[in-house]
Design a protein that fits this description.
The chain has about 190 residues and is mainly beta. Helix content is about 10%, strand content about 35%. A hairpin with a 2-residue loop joins β1 and β2. The longest helix has 11 residues.
Length: about 190
């Protein structure tokens, strides 16, 4: 947190690889080396400043889906801001006015960028914990991928957090190639991967 009370976060938009299922490595776009991007967590009432650096080969933006914020921070390229060009950084600044589970994604070439995984979750915890008590909070982003874009297949790859459940656990967080552990342990790993 900065001296004047802003919570700062950094998102780096970039191409990533994600093993959707054992042996099925997808070339996706994401943030900070992963797709979906990291889950951002903060508290209702926080002032947040989120630096978005573009390391993609084309322009992008970040739209904060469902959040109440000034139009200039809404991340709609060509409407509420100029798109963030490759190698540029844009700072989004706003106050978190309501709690809930939200998502972020580009509004720039979104039919392509979202199709290749550019999205993440944003959890805003209520200021008053008694507002809605939870024991555990699991964040799951559902997705659908096709093996070859523009090729007709009779199936999609349906995913949670870009994993085809019950694929094995997240290798880069547990540092293991081991097969998926029993169900309850796998749920733990979901929480750990977020
Ligand atoms: Cu949206």
């Amino acid at each position: 947190m900065t001296a004047d009370g802003w919570k700062e976060f950094h998102l780096v938009a970039e191409p990533v690889e994600r093993e959707i299922a054992p042996g099925m490595v997808a070339r996706l776009w994401g943030c900070n080396g992963q797709s979906p991007g990291p889950t951002i967590e903060a508290v209702e009432g926080d002032k947040v400043r989120i630096f978005v650096t573009n390391r993609l080969p084309e322009h992008t933006t970040v739209h904060w889906h469902g959040m109440l914020l000034p139009s200039g921070m809404d991340g709609v390229g060509g409407l509420s801001q100029p798109p963030i060009k490759p190698a540029e950084t844009f700072a989004y600044e706003y106050v978190l006015r309501k709690s809930g589970t939200f998502m972020y994604h580009p509004h720039a070439d979104e039919t392509f960028q979202m199709a290749v995984g550019m999205m993440g979750s944003f959890v805003v915890h209520p200021k008053e914990p008694a507002f809605m008590r939870v024991d555990r909070d699991f964040v799951l982003l559902a997705g659908a991928y096709v093996p070859r874009v523009a090729t007709m297949t009779d199936f999609n790859i349906w995913t949670w957090n870009s994993r085809a459940f019950p694929g094995r656990v997240c290798k880069n967080l547990l540092g293991s190639d081991e097969p998926a552990p029993p169900h309850s342990a796998q749920q733990e790993s979901f929480a750990g991967s977020l």
